[in-house]
Amino acid sequence: MVKIETVTRKDLEARVLKAQGPVVLDFYQASCPPCQVLEPHLERATQPYANRLPVYRIDIDRDLPVASRFDVMSIPTVLILFKGKEIARLDGLITEDQLKKAFDQVVGKYLPTPSV
C-alpha cells in the first residue's frame, strides 16, 4: 500500500502548487471517524499510480489556513490539483470506487501513458 505523507503550509508551494503533474490533497483531522475510514481507501486507490500521482494529507488542526485557501468546508475532503489549480473535489463519505474513478479520469487526461 502507498503511504500517504502529511505536508504542511511550508511544503505546499514546492510539493503541491509547483508540481508539474496532478497532485492529490486529503484534508483530514485526526479525531474525524470518516477521515480514519478514508485513509486505507485512499492508500489502496492510489496504489496503481504510485510514483506518478503524489498524494499528501493536510491536517486541518495544524494548517487551517491551507484548508481555507482551498475553500474546504467539511472533512474529509480530497482535492486533485493540476499546476496549483483544482480539477476535482470529493467530500463527505468518500468511497474507494469514487476515488478510483476520479483518479482514472485525472490520470487519463493529465498524465502520459507509461512506456512498457
Please explain how this structure is put together:
The protein has 116 residues and is an alpha/beta fold. The chain has a single domain (5-108), classed as Glutaredoxin, CATH 3.40.30.10. The protein has four helices and five strands. It has helices at 9-17, 33-46, 64-69, 96-110; strands at 5-6, 22-28, 55-59, 77-82, 85-91. A five-stranded mixed sheet has the order 1-3-2-4-5. Strand 2, helix 2 and strand 3 (55-59) form a beta-alpha-beta unit. Helix 2 (33-46) packs across helix 4 (96-110). The longest helix has 15 residues, at 96-110. It is globular, with a radius of gyration of 13 Å. 28% of the residues are buried. The model has no long low-confidence stretch (mean pLDDT 92).
Write the layout of secondary structure elements.
Elements lengths: L4 E2 L2 H9 L4 E7 L4 H14 L8 E5 L4 H6 L7 E6 L2 E7 L4 H15 L6
Helix pairs in contact: 2-4
